[in-house]
Amino acid sequence: MNQHRTEIDLPESLFGLDELALDMRLISSHRADRVWHRVNPELWAASRNPWAVLKSIGAPELAALGADEAFTEQVRDLVDDRQRRNSDPFWFPQSKAANTLALVAYFSMEFGLSEALPIYAGGLGVLAGDHMKAATDLGVPVVGVGLLYQQGYFRQALDSQGNQHELYPFSDPSEIPVRRLRGADGAWIRIPLEFPGRTVYLRAWEVNVGRLSLYLLDSNDPANDPSDRGITAQLYEADSAVRWEQEMALGFGGWRLLRELGRYPDVCHLNEGHAAFAVLERARWIALEHEVPFDVALTVARAGTVFTTHTPVAAAFDRFDPSFVVSYLSPFAAEMQVSIEDILRLGRADPGDHSEPFNMAYLAIRGASRINGVSRLHGEVSRELFGDLFPRCPIEEVPVGHVTNGVHVPSWDSPAADEVWTNAELRRQWQGVPTPIVDWMEKIPAAELWRMRNRNRERFVLWSRQRLARQFTVAGAGPDRIDEAQRIFDPNILTLGFARRFTEYKRTALLLHDPDRLARILTNADRPVQIAVAGKAHPADGFGKALIQRWYEFSQREDVRSRVAFIADYDLLPAEQLVNGVDVWVNTPRRPWEASGTSGMKVLVNGGLNVSELDGWWAEAYAPQVGWAIGDGREHDDTAQWDAEEADGLYRLLENEIVPMFYARDENGVPDEWMRRVRESMATLTPQFSSERMIREYVENLYAPASFAYRTRLADNCRIAADVQRWRDMIENYWGEVTFGTVHVDPDDKGYAFRILVSLGAIGPEAVQVQLFASAAGQGGPERILMERGDEVVRGTYSYHCRTDGSRPPRDYTPRVIPFHPDASFPLEANRICWYQH
Ligand SMILES: *Cc1c(COP(=O)(O)O)cnc(C)c1O
């Protein structure tokens, strides 16, 4: 494969500059920033696209740069640095996980790596981008799989009334940092997909992220029908047929591409259910190569699959009309010698309900062995959401855990914060080398941290002025308005930031509950405050658009317009500027709707503080010494009344605590109480909510055990998988024969002795466990006491016994029979439970 050469003819002194331009890991490097700024400052500022910047200049300019010693030295430093970074083993190769884990395929509908590669809409994509960047930093073998959208997600423009307009600029593959993939024979790789009545070809691309690759597919191949060439044009197509086809391209196409490239992942990570078809395609390969039935192959694939769910509401799962399954997947079912009903049931809660839509999250659950939500609270919410798939199962045992999200710290630090962390020699932390962050933070003088805060704020103010002036110019504002924009904000006053998707649950207008009260806070003569707001509303969300307009109108009020700005077209660059600059990040979702939220984590490294609803990540991060909480940490039904109370709480926090604390200065002009919180938040929260911590958790707790289980099941031509599958079939077919006799409880010297008869019918005693189960009492999980098998009293009927320690009364315990297999997981792979009826 000839991917590592570009067509750019570089002078020798600039060798490697093209590789720098294509590396999405470097996009967030402040040093690389300076290089691209030097090559073409206008285009760099407008596009943040190093590849386009490099291609924008001609041979004479390249030659001039090549003769500029200061510049070539910067380039050489970066090239050397990159080489070191990509060859250093860092964390993973020295971890225990490296003994089993060979390669993770990370499938995601979006990847937010850089504005130069617009294939993301928001939080999910940015998380995927940060996942890749942290994986390369830690040396974890990951390959990303996604789609290349020609138009990506929409870009937002605001007119002079504050109406949102959606724009879909076209990205030309020759101008974005992607390379077309070629096969061993030098020909472009094309992946065929069988759609009803036709074959659709997918083109394949590679994106470089440090030492890792992200592969992308798109359908804009000249061989395709014109109607198929646009399948991958836009992200989150409203048309469900296109959405289905995109998900087939991602899952089936993505796995096929990996095989075409000779990559054999042992773990497949589904970042949200959109990618769940990858499991089916993976099972197909296993079935064909090992000549095993489809259900055995699926049992192998399942062991090596991790599924991360991201939504706290069932309505957000992707669901499709069953007719799609029938028309698109019948050839697949036929090849696998299963009925289409067998495929349909993988996506249904109730396999017998023929009208139930096909749910991609359910398919992902049926195809995974490890499932997680994205914060502790979201784990709990997800266990409720997926409870339907595990009837009779106590909620604590619904097999969904959590890995709290984190952010790629080096991507989100400001130049000033970078200096502080670098001087303190703490940056190795982000490569998995533990550093004494808490000790160092103790030693940094408050005045130095305060200087960093001031630099951050000032840089943000200067950036906002330019950005707003351009925004108003584009919206057709008059010269007075543009002039005002160039003077908006003040680098010395308390700066709040607030940016997110404008949608009902985010309650983006909570601060506007009483606009006059907010205006009084902002315009207080002694202790003024300013606020920057940004965010897009989904094109079909009229409610969200109206909220944008309310903020816009508020920002135009005569009395506050120098203190409030709505920054249009929220994206990675505005996000970076905001989280670098603001003193306080405000987040007001309606609990428990924010699965995790990551934007508040991005302010941590920069010394910003959070004031947020106790939802998502903040529910586990909050402590009084690191920030402020809104709400009471519970859910509420009467939303209007409760919103009013929370708005009042937020105003009071600002009026009585946040603003006074920011302006309470010591003799050197430093807000010492404020800086104590900044220090605490930087020291304790930054590492905890970094993607470095997140990746280590995924590797150690999910990827490595999944890889081990996958290899175990695959060995000996899927011997163990076949055994697990036989066991599952037996459980399904004969579970109805399991019955209890009467339970006998006798007090003994320490506690109670339990005895019971259990008839297992055709199910052998090795295939089950009999337990006493008690729900959690207070802290900790439920209690399960294994009952020991005694004699077979009649054929198929056994006596079981155990003791309890007497700490709880006997009525707390209920005997139950559950399926058991040493290599399988309960209740995920056999969700039967027989409870003793008192
Ligand atoms: C971090 C980020 C998000 C995620 O925002 P949350 O509201 O915290 O989920 C969305 N969009 C962009 C551009 C981001 O950088």
UniProtKB/TrEMBL annotation:
Matching entries from Pfam families are given as:
DUF3417, Phosphorylase
Q: Which residues form a coiled coil?
A: none
Membrane-crossing ranges are none
On the tree of life, the source organism's domain of life is Bacteria
Q: Which SUPFAM superfamilies match?
A: UDP-Glycosyltransferase/glycogen phosphorylase
Which InterPro entries did the record assign?
Answer: Agluc_phsphrylas, Glyco_trans_35, Glycogen/Maltodextrin_Phosph, Glycogen_phosphorylase_DUF3417
Q: Which UniProt keywords apply?
A: Allosteric enzyme
Q: Does this UniProt record's set of keywords contain Cytoplasm?
A: no
Give every DUF3417 domain span.
10-117
**Mitochondrion listed as a keyword:** no
**Catalytic activity, as annotated:** [(1->4)-alpha-D-glucosyl](n) + phosphate = [(1->4)-alpha-D-glucosyl](n-1) + alpha-D-glucose 1-phosphate
Q: What's this protein's family per the entry?
A: Belongs to the glycogen phosphorylase family.
What is the name of this protein? Alpha-glucan family phosphorylase
* Source species: Candidatus Mycolicibacterium alkanivorans
